[in-house]
Structure prediction request, 160 residues.
Amino acid sequence: MALSRTISLLLILLFIGFSSSGQVLPSNEVEYDSIYAINIKLSKINGVYIPKDLFEAHQQLIKLTPKESLDKFKMAEEKEVCKKLHFGIGRWMIVNWNFYDGSRMSHYLKEKGVLHPDDMAQFILRTFHRNLNKLESDQENIIKELAEARKKEAEYLINN
Prediction:
């Protein structure tokens, strides 16, 4: 019994030690900017390849997605399927391509005018859908739509 408790205690301590030894969060804007400046130059973050542009992002999605899933995605209505996939592959991109803390992909998108991580994921998914369907990407219009929706959401939150 004592041995069992000792082992349990050791496992708990190991878990706490490993979970607290993760990435250190920046404590101020200067630290954040410093981390961001480093991240946007990296081709890999946490062992995950970070695309440098939209073409590479689309190529990575093709590489990571089974053909059957790509076919379903391609055949679905753009906005509906992108909305449905937001909390799947969209969230994966946000986390693994480091949209919140900065990466070369998020920096590329910010330079295009896509500023919010959720919008970045939607932008990539929507342009990817259009690319698979051999349609004009119409990036500027997508960016405009996303910015308008983000503005409306902010106004709603402020007023309610």
